[in-house]
Amino acid sequence: MPALPPDPEYARDDAGPASEPAPADLPGVPPEMADEPALVARVRAGDSQAYDTLVRRYLKRAYAVAQRMLGNSADAEDVVQDAFLRALERIAQCGPGRAFGPWFFRILITQGLNHQRSQKVRRTEELPDSIHNNSPLADAEAEASEIRVAFRAALAHLPEMQRTIVQLSDIEGYGSGELAAMLDMPAGTVRWHLHQARKFLRQALAAYAPRGSGHAQDGTA
Fold first, then answer.
1. In 52, 84, 132, 186, which residue has its Cα 20 to 30 A from 61's Cα atom?
2. What is the pTM of this model?
3. Domains of the chain and CATH, by start
4. What is the pLDDT of residues 193-217, one digit of tens each?
5. 11-14: long-range contacts (C-beta < 8 A, 24 or more apart)?
6. d(CA 217, CA 63)
């Protein structure tokens, strides 16, 4: 099963200085990232304003990803800061013609996974005070809270790669192509992990499925 290395090697930089391709020469770079190879080249030349542009572009999205992975605002802030610092330190490894975004998110996700391992992050949720009465609304809140707790418990039992992929796909809305670039793995492998994760979660939460729904019981996609 593919897994991210604890300290991955990114794009090689052993070819020496090279001219940066113009955006028009980069058919593999999404249009919204077309200026990034040039920005990266400026950062490599010591232009701090160019890096500020990249940080502002991805800061909010990076925090959302880290928050989803770690479930803790302080941890998410630390991981995002560390990821941006590490990316700046290794900017020479973001090779010519490569967009910054997917390369940076691979660093961020690796940092998040390493943080999970080192801190053994566990997320829990206290039931709201309102469920201690017997009103129909309180019963509904209790049931919803119970489902959330059960979901988080099931999520915690997934292998970390599958947990990360299902969170980023089903909760944050990333597509398999985006995740393939972030995780440096084939899109087909991403889809396989996603299928396995969804199947496990459906089985784990089968007791909460609406009656008459056989879909959650059989584990099919």
1. 186
2. 0.61
3. 23-119 (1.10.1740.10), 129-218 (1.10.10.10)
4. 999 988 988 888 887 776 655 544 4
5. 11/93, 11/94, 11/95, 11/98, 11/103, 12/93, 12/95, 13/92, 13/93, 13/95
6. 35
